[in-house]
C-alpha cells in the first residue's frame, strides 16, 4: 500500500507537506507547481486518503436489505412530547444502526397511516416500535417473515422482540423509596389516548406499583393518578393532588416528562423536593439530571434497544429461524429528588 512517505520521496518534498496538501489544509503555502506534482504522484501511485478508504469500507458494508419502520405514535405526539422522548430514543437507535450497517432505504409508516400492501411489498423486514393493531399484525404475518418488535412482545414464540424489564425497574425504584423511610407512596402515570388506540395496553409500571404496595399492606387507590405521558399532565395531576390535600410522602412517576411537570406544580406551592415530597421517575432522559431538582430516575437504554432491534432483523434475514426475546437491563440513577432519608 502506498504511503505518504512514498509520495514525498517521489515528489521530492517533506511528508508533512504531502499530508497537508492531500488533506486540503487551507493554511499551507506551496506553489501551484508543487501542489500539482504531489497530486499527480499520489494518483500515479494509487494513494487513497484515510477518509476515502473509510468511505469505501462503508460502501462495502452496504446491504441490499430494505427495512421498514412502523411507529406506534403519531407525528403530532412525537412533536408534542406526549409519549416522552422514550420512543424518539428508540427510533434514533434504529436509524443510527441502519446507517452503521449501510442500510439507507428504510421506510417509515405511523400509527395514523394505513399499512398499505405496497409498503409491505417494498420491504424485506419490518421493525415495529410500540404496539401494533392485531388486524395489522395478521396482515404483515401473511406477507412478511421477518419482523422485530421493540418495547412490545406480542408473541415470543413467533416474533423477535426487544424489551426492558419494567417490573424489575419499578420494583427497584419503590425499594429505594422504602429504604429512604417512605411508606406513603403515590403513583403518577399515563395511558394511551383512546382516540388513537385500539385497546388499553397493560402498563407494567402501574401494575407492579399496585402489587408491590398491596404486598406491603399500603396500597391506596386514591393515591393513584393517571393521565397522559406529558409535562402538562404531570403538572395538572400534581396540582389536583395538592388541592385535594392528603399529599403522599413520595411519588413514583412513570416518565421524566410527567415528573418535571409535577416538580413545577410542587414548587409553585412551596412544597420542597425531597424534604416534603420525594420523587422517583422513569426513563432518565437527559433533562432529568438538569431539572430544577435533579431527578432520581430509572435509566432505560432506548437507543441500544433500537440498535439491537436492527441487529436481530439482520440476523433473521441472514437465516436465523428461532425467535429471540432480548431484555435490556435498566439502572436506577439516584439524584437529589429522593436522596434524603425520611425521619421515622
UniProtKB/TrEMBL annotation:
Look up the domain of life of the source.
Answer: Bacteria
- Cross-referenced Gene3D superfamilies: 3.40.50.2300, lambda repressor-like DNA-binding domains
SMART domains recorded: HTH_LACI
| GO MF, one annotated term | transcription cis-regulatory region binding
Task: Return any one Pfam family short name.
Answer: LacI
Q: Keyword DNA-binding on this protein?
A: yes
Q: Report keywords, A-Z.
A: DNA-binding, Transcription, Transcription regulation
Q: What is this protein called?
A: LacI family DNA-binding transcriptional regulator
Q: Report the source organism.
A: Metabacillus sediminilitoris
Amino acid at each position: 500500500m502506498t504511503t505518504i512517505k512514498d509520495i514525498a520521496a517521489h515528489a521530492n518534498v517533506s511528508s508533512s507537506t504531502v499530508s497537508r496538501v492531500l488533506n486540503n489544509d487551507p493554511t499551507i503555502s506551496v506553489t501551484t507547481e508543487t501542489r500539482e506534482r504531489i497530486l499527480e504522484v499520489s494518483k500515479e501511485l494509487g494513494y487513497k486518503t484515510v477518509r476515502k478508504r473509510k468511505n469505501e469500507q462503508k460502501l462495502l458494508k452496504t446491504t441490499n436489505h430494505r427495512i421498514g419502520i412502523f411507529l406506534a405514535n403519531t407525528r403530532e405526539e412525537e412533536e408534542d412530547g406526549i409519549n416522552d422522548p422514550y420512543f424518539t430514543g428508540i427510533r434514533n437507535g434504529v436509524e443510527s444502526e441502519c446507517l452503521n450497517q449501510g442500510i439507507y432505504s428504510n421506510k417509515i409508516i405511523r400509527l395514523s397511516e394505513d399499512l398499505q400492501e405496497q409498503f409491505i411489498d417494498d420491504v424485506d423486514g419490518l421493525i415495529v416500535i410500540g404496539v401494533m393493531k392485531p388486524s395489522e399484525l395478521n396482515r404483515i404475518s401473511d406477507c412478511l417473515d421477518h419482523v422485530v418488535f421493540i418495547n412490545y412482545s406480542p408473541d415470543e414464540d413467533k416474533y423477535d422482540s426487544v424489551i426492558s424489564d419494567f417490573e424489575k425497574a419499578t420494583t427497584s425504584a419503590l425499594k429505594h423509596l422504602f429504604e429512604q423511610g417512605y411508606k406513603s407512596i403515590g403513583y403518577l402515570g399515563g395511558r394511551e389516548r383512546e382516540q388513537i388506540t385500539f385497546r388499553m395496553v397493560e402498563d407494567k409500571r402501574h401494575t407492579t406499583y399496585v402489587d408491590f404496595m398491596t404486598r406491603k399492606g399500603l396500597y391506596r387507590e386514591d393515591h393513584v393518578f393517571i393521565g397522559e405521558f406529558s409535562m402538562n399532565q404531570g403538572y395538572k395531576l400534581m396540582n389536583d393532588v395538592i388541592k385535594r390535600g392528603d399529599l403522599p410522602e413520595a411519588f413514583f412517576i412513570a416518565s421524566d416528562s410527567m415528573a418535571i411537570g409535577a416538580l413545577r406544580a410542587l414548587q409553585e406551592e412551596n412544597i420542597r423536593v425531597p424534604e416534603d415530597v420525594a420523587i422517583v421517575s422513569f426513563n432518565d432522559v437527559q433533562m432529568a439530571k438538569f431539572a430544577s431538582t435533579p431527578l432520581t430516575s430509572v435509566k432505560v437504554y432506548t437507543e441500544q434497544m433500537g440498535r439491537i432491534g436492527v441487529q436481530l432483523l439482520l440476523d433473521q434475514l441472514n437465516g436465523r429461524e428461532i425467535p429471540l426475546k432480548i431484555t435490556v437491563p435498566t439502572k436506577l440513577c439516584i439524584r437529589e429528588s429522593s436522596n434524603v432519608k425520611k425521619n421515622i
